[in-house]
Design a protein that fits this description.
Number of domains: 1
Shape: globular
Largest sheet: 7 strands, antiparallel
Order of helices and strands: EEEHEHEHHEEEEH
Structural class: alpha+beta
Distance between the termini: 42 Å
Number of helices: 5
């Protein structure tokens, strides 16, 4: 059954406005080609892939995918993006010092990848893919964090890979995770797309950084 059965075509490029306590955040999509999926799909499909410790604020897919299968949407999520907030941080101020502590807590789980070394990003992805190929992969794999993609005062991006089984075949998803500090709140933006080649990681890094900049700019 198609994942988007009964979903209506969303507004392409429209910002999503969310409330965190008394703070209003404006969340644009990753690019103008993405559309926010709407409340119904956020509460059903996308909530299932968000950790219980987080709350989903918005979710996005390429707008053209809503037109597949007779207007019922894609059968598989090849590309998607989400914005989440840690539940314990919904109403809490995030100072610059708090944000740096969040980044330090991620540090032990990632490699030593330099934030400006694109070649190393590609190499690390190749190494982790080889290791994933030797592991027993269940219905959903554990994300393999690679390292930093970019670092800024109120935004940092991290690369990851995840492998899981879809029917009889294995799917590799490349992901970018970006903690952001906006209006004294901590949120987490992420983009995932099916891994095809080294170009996947390069474009993912570019899009995640541009999206992070856009979210920060809309909430100044």
């Amino acid at each position: 059954m198609p994942l988007f059965l009964g979903a209506s075509l969303p507004s392409v490029g429209a910002d999503n406005q969310v409330q965190l306590g008394r703070v209003t955040l404006i969340l644009p999509g990753p690019t103008s080609e993405f559309a926010e999926v709407g409340e119904a799909l956020r509460k059903t499909l996308f909530t299932q892939i968000v950790p219980p410790t987080n709350r989903l604020l918005s979710a996005y897919v390429p707008a053209h995918s809503f037109l597949e299968n007779g207007g019922r949407g894609p059968r598989e999520l090849e590309v998607y993006a989400m914005v989440q907030v840690p539940r314990e941080a919904e109403d809490a101020d995030c100072t610059p010092q708090d944000f740096q502590q969040v980044l330090r807590s991620i540090g032990p789980f990632v490699g030593t990848l330099d934030a400006h070394d694109t070649e190393e990003l590609v190499n690390q992805a190749s190494i982790r893919l080889q290791s994933l190929g030797l592991q027993s992969i269940g219905a959903a794999g554990r994300p393999e964090l690679l390292g930093a993609m970019f670092r800024k005062p109120n935004a940092s991006g991290f690369a990851m890979l995840m492998a899981f089984k879809r029917g009889d075949h294995r799917v590799i998803m490349a992901g970018g995770l970006a903690p952001l500090r906006i209006k004294q709140r901590l949120i987490i933006a992420s983009i995932f797309r099916r891994y095809e080649s080294s170009d996947t990681m390069i474009s993912l890094r570019r899009d995640l950084e541009a999206w992070s900049d856009a979210v920060l700019a809309r909430n100044r």
